[in-house]
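ugh ok fine here u go
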Amino acid sequence: MSRKNEIRNKELIENKPYLTKIELSLLLDKKGKNLDKKITQLIRDETIIPLKRGLYTSRIFYLKNKENIEEYLANSIYYPSYLSMEYVLTKENIIPETVYSYTSVSLKTTRNFTNKLGNFTYKKIKEKLFTGYYQKDYFENCRIKIATRAKALFDFLYFKTEKTLRELGDFRINWQNITSNDLDEFSMYIDMSQSAKMKKAYTLIKKEYDKR
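structure:
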């Protein structure tokens, strides 16, 4: 590799789960148009992968840490957020459908991002309902925020219309994989939400659950 194409702090870049444009400016020791040109070159050479405007991950880091990296990056692409809804329900075998998007809940405006790693969808929720998730270790001091089964189901139904909720029996939910503790937790979020729609949803859920 010629000196012209050498990457400053290459090892540091390859060992970070994600990099902002500001971090790249410091690591590459470049600014303005020179920085943009270098970032374009690094993307073209597949040294880094763009996640969204101003946020990147190293291809080497991705290849070395493939397991669960998309889950961690889902939390990082739009912060604060936690994985929930269809993604978690499929992971927990609560719904049988294959999900092709990393679905999350956030305090920010509803957004969608698509990059080489997948599709990342975020739904805005009220601050008092931004709860019901646990954290699992991913990389050194990095953790992944992911909803419990009960909260993932609550979030999933919370964003449905009341008309859609009346067709709950058509959702193909695997009720046998939901426990009474899950229902108790679900009920707690209904109390927190004070949502008449979700109170009606709970009545329908209990009816479907009892038919198991």
